[in-house]
Every structure is written in C-alpha cells, then in structure tokens.
Amino acid sequence: MRKKDISRYNLNSKDLRRLTGERSLLAKGLLTAGAILLMNVTVFVLIFAGYIISVVNDRVEYDVRANKLQLTSIIYVMDENGKMKEYNKAYSAENRIWVDFNEMPKHMKDAIIAIEDKRFYAHHGVDWIRTVGAVCNLALGTGSYGGSTLTQQAIKNLTGENDVSITRKIKEIFRAINFEKEYSKDEILELYLNIVNFGNGCRGVQAAANTYFDKDIKNCSLAECAAIAGITQNPTKYNPLLYPENNQERRETVLSEMLDQGKIGQDEFDRAMEESRELVFSKSHKPESVAENVPIRNWYVEALFKDIVEDLMAKYKISRASAQDILFKQGLKIYCAVDEKAQSAAESVISTEPLMPKDKNLELGYMMMNYDGRVLASVGSRSKKTGNMLFDRANYAKRQAGSCIKPISVYAPAIDMGLYNYGSVVKDEPLPNFYGRGKPGPNNWYKSYKGRVPLVWAIQQSANAPAAQTLQELTYQKSFDFLTQKLGFAHLDPEDRTSGGALALGGFHGGVTVREMTAAFQIFGNGGMYNKPYTYFYVLDRNGKVLLDNRDNIGRRAISSQTATIMNRLLRQVIVAGTGRGADIENWEVVGKTGTTNDDKDSWFVGLTPEAVAGIWTGYDSPKRIRETAYAKRIWREIMVRFLEGKAAKTYNFDPNVRTCRYQLNSGEFAATDDGTATAIGYFANNDMPKGYVEYSNMPNTGGEAGLGHNLSEEEVESGLSPNSEVVIPGQEEIPEDLIE
C-alpha cells in the first residue's frame, strides 16, 4: 500500500482503542483456552501416570508349581477342647488332569506357539510389535485389540477378566511382565496348555484330546495337535464336533504357519495335510469326565467350598476355574468353622422320619450360627444327600420371607430411629393405597381391624396392618436401605424398594435366603452388631501363608444396643403368647419370629437362644400351598434342644441403659401402680421412658430380669409381675391353633 493511500483508512483514536481491545481480548481468549487445554492435558497425564504406577507391580496370585503337584487340601475342625483335628479332604468332582510339560508332544507346543505367539520365546511377556499393531487397528477402527501373547492369554484365563478396555489391557501387560519374572517360559506354556478353553467344556489339552480323539494328548498326531491348537481363537466357531469344516480350515492354517516358521519340514506338512482331509473325531465324547471315588460331602462342606471359591475370586481377582484349582489342587489347610455337635444335631433331626412332614416333597433349608457370624451348622435339603454340588436351600434358595421380615425391616429400624418404643400404640387399620391403584390393605389374619393396638401385641400376633402403618412412618426407602446396607440382603429386587407388600409383609420380588435371614436376626442377641456369616476361620497355602482370614473380621453396627435389647424382649412375647408358642425350651429363653407367605407357600421360623441363632424355611421347590406349616418351628426346636443338651444355661447380655417399668397398654404412658387398668411391663431406654414416668428415688433398683435396671418393687417382682408375663388385651381373642404361623 502506498503512503498516500493511508488517508483512505484514517482511524481516529476511538477506533484504534477498540481495535486494540479486540486484539487484546482475542489474545486473552487464546491464552485462556491454551491454559485450560494445558491444564486438562496435565491432569490427564498425571491421572494416567498415577494409574500406571498403581498397576506396574500388579500380579496374579496363582501358584503354578503348586497346581502342578496336584496336592490334596485338608479340612480341619475344632474339637470340644478347642484343638484342631482333621475333618475332611477337598476332592474335585472334575477330572481335569494336569499334564506335565515333558509329557506333551513337541508338535502340540509348536502348534500353539505358531498360531498364537510365534515370538513367545523371544519376548518378556509382551510382544510390542503386535501390541503396537493392535493399538493402530483400534485407533483406525479396523479391528479389536488382539496382539495378546500366550502369557497374556494365560493371565486372562486365570483372572477371568475379558472386558474390552484400555485399562484392562494395560493391567494385563504389567501382569504378564511380572508373571514372566516369576516363571520360566516352559512353565508358562505348560500352564497355558493346561487351563485354556478348547471348547465343549474342555479345559486343557488333555481334556481336549480325550474328548475329540478318545486318546491322551501324548498320543496325538501332528494333524490332531493342529486341530486342537486351532480351537483356542474361537472355541465355538472352531469346535470340530459342531463345525468340522471350520476346524479343518483353521488347523490347516496352523500347519502352514508351522511350515513357514520352520517348526516342521515339507514332508511332515504334506503328511499332516493328507491326514487333515480325512481326520476323524470321536462320536461318543464326554465334555468332562467325573472323577471316581469322590466322597459325598455334607451340606456344610459344600457351602464351605463355595465360600472359599467366591472369596478367592474376590480377593485375588481370579476366575472361578482358577479358584477351584487352588482349592482342589494346591494343598491348602482349611480351618473350618463348623460345630460338629450342631451339624450332627441338624442332620439327625432332619433324617428322623417321625419328626419330619409326611409329604416327602416338602423341602427345607436350615442354618445355625453364633453371634459373631460363625456358621455352626447348615443343611440344604431334607432328603439324604446322594451327590455333590446339589441345590442348597439354606445358602442359595431365594424365597419370600413372610412375616419373619417384620422385626428387621420395620420394627427394629423404627425403634432405633426413635419413632416408637416398647410401649407405643400403633394403628391397626388399612392404608388407602397400599397395593396401588387405590386398593387398600393389608388384611390381618383375624379378618378385622382393631383401630389402635399396643406395638408389643402387633408383633406378638403378627398383625399385618400395624406393620404397614409403621413402615409408612418409617418410609420405604429407609426400610430398604436398612435391609441392604446394614443387614447384608443381596437379592432384593429394585421393585422391592417401593413395595409395602415386600417390606412390611415379606412378599419380595427378589427374595431372601435362610443364610441372610439367620444372619440378620443375630442383631437381637449380640447388642445390635451385624457380622457377615463365615464357614471358615482361615485358609493357609501349602507354605503356611494366610490366603483367607475371618478371625479378625469386625462387624458393623446395625442398631443400638438399647434397641437390640428392646427388640429381644418384644420378640420374647412372640414365644410367650404369640405365633411362636411351642418353640420355648426349658431353662433357655427363646425369642424369635414365625413367618408365612400368601397362600401358605413358605413357612419360616427364625429363633434365638443365648447360645446361638438359627433359621429354617420349609416349602416346595415349585411354590404351592403348604398343609403342614407348623413343621418349621417344631424342627427348629428339636435341633436346638439337641444342640443345647449338656450346655450350661446362659442369659442374654442386655444393655444396662434399658430399664423396665409398668405402662398403660392403651396409651403407652407410664403406670405408677397396678390400678386395675390394662397395664404391662415394658423395656425402655433411659432417654425414652414412657410419658409421665417418674423415677422414685426411694424405690430399690434390684437389677431386674436378666440384669436390667427397673423401678419395680421386690414384692411386685415376686408376685409374678415378670417381663415374661403374657401381654393380653382385654376382649381380644386368642389366635386359633390352625392360624398360628
């Protein structure tokens, strides 16, 4: 531009300031965007670096050498003197024989290396050439990850982790590198060939050779080894029994790779190709052969094995198959938590025909545990156990709980939150929209509503409407959270969160197990602590290292100690004068709750003594009406009687801040004396005494029943006005025997 032309763009000072400001604003915007971008990149790099640091030493906890030894695991139990003795041994029901590296034909090893990882003996766990190629394929969208070495594939089989993600791949890479620091190439190849999936339920080359060719792997030809090696990429697609043409194409690819890599000569290749065209597979294959002479395990040991497998999987992030290998093949020392007397009592009662229902199709599940979560006994069926890995109705059957749920889903949390106390009066009337769509409910077994009733009576008589009213005040969400977050219920359905029929009456969409119910009721006998059930104290590996340990487990508080004491006394009334009549045991104070579901399809009893808590379910595998609902309670009592025989009587440890006093049944208010109105003895926290309560300083505190503080005179106690006395509302009918749950 010539100088004289500048006059055409004559800018005044205001224009110049505006232009300068716009440029400055643009520069600031660019700087801000750059700073934000730099910050995000820095944060990403730091997070990624932190993740890399966190996984760089990640290892798979799996003892390959121990697995190879095929060592038998031993189970120990505690005798009556507190010493451990041998109880049982861990035998696998599967005959998955480990084949030693030297017993595998060279063709089998070469075939799998040729098709899966041709640089296996050159890399250190990761083939970076293939890995970079796989990442490029992923970035371009032309393929999946791929690029896994045999070491990485072995890691994937051990852990069972198979999700398609960058984080899983990075973790797998470092695990493979660390794995190769611990094991030789031959050991890794031996592991791979013994655990990988070869289709049709075959794990390992020996099972594959047995299944597809009716021979041992050491006797397989080159073509047969190629056929087996070709399966691993896609065990369904290349299954020779399902898709023989696919397997032929794949095994001939394997043979071509072996030729190209110099693992076989031209003559060997030609003979193998000729055999491949006429290869014959077994027509009488068995995916998994059952080991002979495996003893039948009792229900407790079955549950123990399943717990160990689940805990190994969770703690060491390994697959189920790997955990089972550790249990059955690595010479563990398992210190089992069973109480032999309790288990024997349960098994003997359940096997005694006169004590059991006449209908042999009426099944049961039973469990007993102590107050720190130790499972003392477990029985999964009324039938004689004739095999292993049968359906266990104590640990795994998910059923509706019926009225058994009320103490733990409604009354305990309501009292713990201060909504009610022992002497509260609750509504016995229907809720207008209890079942949805304007349908009121629920109904009571006594076909009526009584307006207002004492809480203790509602629990004692298992009334439905008061439980629903209490739930309404508690809220459905808090009830659901209490069950799932405080008491370990893991099978409830999301629909149960908003269902009064589920939370107040036990008609769940998901369901509960005997194990869950028994564990939940422990809080009423141990001061309000929930302890996760366990079937073993600890587990050692063959070198004495602790693999799993339940000895120092710390429970969590579910309810206060005061609430636990109050609920214990409320549930005592169920046994004294309610639906649990007949479960009491001489010299032992039983507390508990019965439960039946709609149309009597499930029958429960969960009860406590100061020694242990036990739960039992009876019903049909395909639910239908039970004609003999009282059997749950009777069986429970007979087992507990046999277990307690010879034991010194104990009392519950109650909270010293709970005291007894007289209250008016119709109002819940304090009653100073027995003036002829309906009164009863109740249990109250010091900070939640009945309205109108006055503690007279001249009244002796004699300690009350079972060590509880109270304000009753010695004469009143001696006259039989005991907290064990039956609470009866004048004019209320007694429960007919045929309606007692």
Number of helices: 23
Q: What would you call the structural class?
A: alpha+beta
Strand content: 5-15%
> Radius of gyration, rounded?
35 Å
Main sheet specs:
5 strands, mixed
Question: Helical proportion?
Answer: 25-40%
Walk me through the structure.
The structure is a single chain. The protein is an alpha+beta fold and 741 residues long. The protein is built from 23 helices and 17 strands. A five-stranded mixed β-sheet has the order 2-1-3-9-10. β13 and β14 (613-619) form a beta hairpin. α12 crosses α13 and α15 (406-416) packs across α17 (464-474). The longest helix is centred in the first third of the chain and has 43 residues, at 13-55. The protein is globular and about 110 Å long. Mean pLDDT is 85; it is low at 287-291, 696-724 and 729-741.
Task: Output the keywords.
single chain, 741 residues, alpha+beta, 5-stranded mixed beta sheet, 5-stranded antiparallel beta sheet, globular, disordered C terminus
Tell me briefly what this model is:
With 741 residues, the chain is an alpha+beta fold. It is 38% helix and 12% strand.
Topology:
Layout: H1 13-55, H2 64-69, E1 73-78, E2 84-90, H3 106-116, H4 128-140, H5 150-159, H6 166-182, H7 185-195, H8 205-213, H9 222-229, H10 244-260, H11 266-277, H12 299-316, H13 320-329, E3 333-336, H14 340-350, E4 363-369, E5 375-379, H15 406-416, E6 425-428, E7 451-454, H16 455-460, H17 464-474, H18 476-486, H19 500-503, H20 514-521, E8 529-530, E9 536-540, E10 546-549, E11 556-557, H21 561-577, E12 591-596, E13 602-608, E14 613-619, H22 631-644, E15 658-664, E16 679-685, E17 709-710, H23 714-718
Parallel strand pairs: 1-3, 15-17
Antiparallel strand pairs: 1-2, 3-9, 4-5, 4-14, 6-7, 8-11, 9-10, 12-13, 13-14, 15-16
Helix pairs in contact: 3-9, 3-10, 5-6, 5-7, 9-10, 9-11, 10-11, 12-13, 14-22, 15-17, 15-18, 15-21
